[in-house]
Structures are given as C-alpha cells and as structure tokens.
Amino acid sequence: MLNKSIKVTKKVIIINQKTDTISENTNLINREPAKNGGEVQKINQKNSNQTQMNNEIDQQKCDLRQLQEMIDIYLKNNQKIKEIKSIVDSLKNRTSKLEQQMRQQEGRCKVKRVRRTSTQIEKKYKCYAKNCEKSYGSMVSLNLHMRIKHKRQRNVQEQQK
C-alpha cells in the first residue's frame, strides 16, 4: 500500500467586536491515510504522553518564573531592610547626640548654689526674750524663732518700737 499524506489547510477568521478587527489564521494539517487500530492507539498514546510532558514542562516553567519573582522580591526586601537599618542607626546617633546636648544644657542651668555656713553669717538680730541668747542674720529668721519658740505673734520691729 502506498503511503500518501494529505495536506489540508484550515482557515479561521477571527472577528474581535471590541476592537473591530478581523484576523485570519491559516493552519496546515497533515493527514495520513488510515492505519490499523494498533498503530493508531500507539500514536494516540505517544501524543498523549507528549502533551502530558509538555504540560509538565509548562508547569515547571511557570514554577520557575514564580520562584524567580519570589527571589527578586526577597532580594529587594533585603535591600530595603538594609536601608531602613542604616536610617535607624543614623537616627539613634542623632538622638544620642541630642540627649547629650540636653544633659549638658541642664547641667549649665542647674548650677548648685553655694550656701554659707552659720559661722559665715553676720548675726546682728538678737532675740529679746528672757534667758534666750539666740541671734540671727535676718529679721525674718528672728520672727520665725519668736513664733515657734516663744509663741509670740508680733513682729520684732513692732516690739522694738
């Protein structure tokens, strides 16, 4: 039997209503004369195995693309994290410098006052109560002494007049 293959051309016209375009698709199909059942079954099985392998390859390509996208995102995120860490470090340095400046300014403002001792104060206000020999450096201190120790409410100035 002679093996003659028949070539058939299939023409498809596609009309896209949204864009108002018309396109043509011409496919060349090879048709061979009919073979016996065993050969057709082998060919069909071979074709199904090929399509299955093609599907697996397409799935692996898709997985590889997704994996590549994930790796790209991961690398970009790592870069962003490094940038954020450097920003945080610079902000920490700035805050520590500002805290030091604040402490220095507080130290300047809160200068501890040097107080005089009792021997350094000139005591010219003497208590006029009987049997009391206390003397004070200010009139206010003497009045306080009189109120607390001698239970008197009148000022020393009024008493002396």
From TrEMBL:
<dbReference type="GO" id="GO:0008270">
    <property type="term" value="F:zinc ion binding"/>
</dbReference>
<keyword id="KW-0863">Zinc-finger</keyword>
<feature type="domain" description="C2H2-type">
    <location>
        <begin position="125"/>
        <end position="155"/>
    </location>
</feature>
<keyword id="KW-0175">Coiled coil</keyword>
<dbReference type="InterPro" id="IPR013087">
    <property type="entry name" value="Znf_C2H2_type"/>
</dbReference>
<protein>
    <recommendedName>
        <fullName>C2H2-type domain-containing protein</fullName>
    </recommendedName>
</protein>
<keyword id="KW-0862">Zinc</keyword>
<keyword id="KW-0479">Metal-binding</keyword>
<feature type="coiled-coil region">
    <location>
        <begin position="50"/>
        <end position="108"/>
    </location>
</feature>
